[in-house]
Amino acid sequence: MLETTTSTNGSSGDPSSQPSGKTDAAAIADILGTPAAEAQAAPAARGVKIPWKLLLVFVLAGGGAVAYPYVKPYIGSDEDAAALDAMPSVSVAQSDLVISVTEEGSLVSAENVDIACGVAGGATIVSLVDDGAQVTEGMELVRLDSSTISENVSAQKIAYEKARAAMIQAEKDHAAAVIAVEEYTEGTFKKELRMAESNVTAATERLQATRNTLSYGERMFRKGYITPQQLEAQKSAVDRAELDLGTAEISLDVLNRFTKPKMITELESVRDAAAARLDSEQASLDLEKAKLDRLNTQLEQCTITAPKAGLVIYANGRNRDREAEIKEGTMVRERQVILQLPDLTKMRADVEVHEAKVDKIRPGMKAKVRVQGREFTGEVTGVANRPESNWFSTAKKYVVQVTIDGTTEQLRPGFTAEVEIVVADLASVISVPVAAVIEQSGEFVCAVRTEEGFERRSVEIGLSNDQLVEVKQGLSPGDRVFLYPRGLLGDGPAKSSSADADGDEAAAGGETGGRGEGQRRGGGEGRGNGGGPPSGRGGQGGSQRGGSGEGQGRPSGTQPGQSPAGQAA
C-alpha cells in the first residue's frame, strides 16, 4: 500500500502542475506513512499514540505563525517594495531657510487724535458723525446728553448768588469793624481823655481858689470881720475842692489804664471776627463759583467739535462688546475715547500673535505687510506685555505693532493686513518638510528609505517655518525620507497641549523650550507650530524640545496603510 501511494505521487510529473492541496497531502503522507499501515499497527497498541513526525509539523507551523509578523518587514517582497514606492517621499538637501511668523491683523494709524468723553461720570451719546466721514475743523462730531447737567447748572447758580450775598454782607461788617477801632483810638478816646484832663484842671483851679479864700478868711477872722461859722464854711469848700480834684485825677487814670485797652480789645475782636467771617464767605463763594464753572465746562463738553480736519473713525476695540459699541444711545465713560482722527501718512498693522510664538518676536525685526494685493515693508515697533482679553476663546494672544515704511496715504484704518515677521534667516542648512518628522517617546524620528525598505532614524531638529524644519543631526544630503511616517513607524507617546473652545490647539515646542500651536479646522486640517512638525492626531500640533522655530503640517490626505501626523481623526 505504501509503495502504491508513493508511485502515484512520483508519477505526477511537474510539481507545479499539481494542485497545492494534493502536493501538501502527499508530502505529509510521505513523512507520516499510509493510513493503512497505521491501521494495521493500531490493534497492537494498548493506547493512542501520536506520531512524532506529526508533532513536529504542528510545532513548526505554530512557530511560523507566531514569528511571521516580526520577520515579515525583513523578508521583503515585490508588493512591499511597490507600496513603499507609492508612498510620498522627498530627498534631503541643503538650502536656505527663512523662519517667519505670519498672522493677520488690522491697519491702524500710528498717530491718532483721540476724541474722548469729558463729562464727569459719563454720558449717553445723543448724536454723532458717521464712521469714516471727512470732517473740517470746528465741525460738530458728537453731542452728549446734557439734560441733567443743565439742571445742575441752574441749581448751582442759585447757590452761587446766595454765597455772593453773604460775601457782600461780610465785607460790610468787616469794614465797619475796622472803622470802629479807628474811631475809638482816634476820636472817642481822645475826646474822653480831653474831658478827663479838663476835669482835673478845673478841680485843681477850684481847689486853689478855695484855698486862697480860706487864707483870706483866716486873716479876716483874726481881725474879727467874719464869724467862726464863715471860716468853717471856707474850710469845707477847700475839702470839697480837694475831693473833686482827686475824683478827676482817678477818672483820668482809669481812662488811660483800663477803659482805653478794654475798648480797643473789644473793637478789634469784632473787627477780627468780621475778617474771619469775610474769609469764610469768600471761600464759600469761590467754591460755589468753581462748581458753577465746572458745570458750565461739563455742559460745553456735551458738544464735541473737530480739532482739525480729517477722517473720522469710531474707537471700537478688537474684541468688540455690542453693548459698548460706539453708536447713538451708548453710555460712554469719562475719558473713554469715542472717535479718532488718524494720520493717514503714518500707518501700522496691529496683529494678535499666539503666546506660543510671541516670545520669538522682538522690536526691530523686519516684516512684510500685505494689504489688498500690495506689499509693504515694515518693522516691529512694539510687543504687548499683556494678552488681549477675549470672552470667546481661552487662547492668549498678544498684540504686535508693525510700523509700515514709507508713505501710506492710500491705506485706510481697518484694512485687513497679512504680516510676515522674519524671525531668522538660515543659510545652507539641511531641511525637510515638517510632515516628515514626528515625535515618539520624547525624541524626533524620520522614516528613511533604504535598499531593504526603510529604517527608523532619530534626528535633532532646530527652527522651522510653515513648510520646512531644520535638521541639525541625523540626516545627510541625498537621504530620502517618507512623508507622514507614522503609518510606517507606528504610534508613540507624543506631548501635546489641550485645545481651546474655538478648536485652536497649542503644543509646547522649540529646541530650548519654544512653543507650538496646533489648529483643527473642519476636522480635516492639522497644523503644528513651534519649531517642529506636527506629531499628534485630531489637529494637534507637535510638541518638541528643539529650537524656538515654528512648524506647520498641512496633510492633504493619507496613503494606503498610513496614519499621517497631524491628520484629523
What's the short version?
The protein is built from nine helices and 24 strands. It is an alpha+beta fold and 569 residues long.
Structural overview:
- It contains nine helices and 24 strands.
- α6 (147-223) packs antiparallel against α7.
- The strands form six sheets. The protein has a six-stranded antiparallel β-barrel. A four-stranded antiparallel sheet has the order 7-6-4-10. A three-stranded antiparallel sheet has the order 3-11-9, with no helix packed on it.
- It is rod-shaped.
- It is an alpha+beta fold and 569 residues long.
- Mean pLDDT is 76; it is low at 1-48 and 493-569.
- The two termini are 64 Å apart.
Secondary structure: elements and pairs:
Blueprint lengths: L1 H9 L9 H13 L2 H7 L10 H24 L2 H9 L2 E3 L1 E17 L2 E5 L6 E6 L5 E2 L4 E5 L2 H77 L4 H74 L1 E3 L4 E2 L1 E2 L16 E2 L4 E6 L4 E8 H4 L7 E6 L2 E10 L13 E8 L11 E18 L4 E3 L2 E7 L4 E11 L3 E6 L6 E3 L3 H4 L14 E2 L12 E4 L3 E4 L41
Antiparallel strand pairs: 1-21, 2-12, 2-16, 3-11, 4-6, 4-10, 5-8, 6-7, 9-11, 12-15, 13-14, 13-16, 14-15, 16-20, 17-18, 18-19, 19-20, 22-23, 23-24
Helix pairs in contact: 6-7
What does the overall shape look like? rod-shaped
Q: How far from one another are the termini?
A: 64 Å
**Major beta sheet summary:** 6 strands, antiparallel, barrel
Strand content is 25-35%
Helix content: 25-40%
Widest beta sheet: strand line-up: 2-12-15-14-13-16
